Amino acid sequence: MATEGISSLELAALDRKGRLKALAEQVDENKDHGVKRGLEDSESNTARIKFRNYQPLDDALQEQKLKKPDAPTAKEDVEEILNSTKANATPEGLDLINLAPRKPDWDLKRAIEDKMQKLERRTQRSIVDIIRERLREGNLATAVEAVAKDEAYESDSD
Asked: Which of 5, 31, 46, 136 is the most interior residue, by most CB within 10 Å?
């Protein structure tokens, strides 16, 4: 297995997967062992008792006690992770620029952007309609002054 392009976190994950797989196989082995005995007991029409946590006092019942699976301790896992992270303080695939927090209102601005575009189009359309009405009435001078004021207002607001 090539470990050149794999980060320390991925190595820890693969190691943990291996330990879990071994533990699952051990549990399956215990189940298979119990199934074989269960078939033998079913032939004799007696109930099969499995002792997972109980420690039987009778020697005859000691045979029915299941083996405890060897689970890795959390202390060993933590020590492995700490040792591996000390070697690589900064992960290779981590982009520090993308971790910078965004402005708190970025989602609000994005949400109302379409509505603001609609309102801007309607505003422009209504301004054009007002100018057309004034031109029809014959007040060309007032229409030109109104347009000039609107343009001055828009340039001041920018």
From this structure: 31
What six digits make up the tokens of 51?
A: 């002792």
**How far is the C-alpha of 120 from the C-alpha of 126, rounded, in Å?**
10
Asked whether the beta carbons of 130 and 146 are under 8 A apart, the reply is: yes
Counting beta carbons within 10 angstroms of the beta carbon of residue 138, is it exposed (0 to 12), middle (13 to 18) or buried (19 or more)?
A: exposed
Closest CA to 84 of 1, 4, 9, 2: 9
Point out which residues pair with 65 in neighbouring strands: 51
Whether the predicted model's global pTM rises above the 0.70 cut: no
CA–CA dist 128, 135 (Å, integer): 11
pLDDT digits (tens, 9 = 90+) for 101-147: 677 777 888 889 999 999 999 999 999 998 888 777 776 667 677 77
Q: Which of 24, 27, 25, 40 is nearest to 66 (CA)?
A: 27
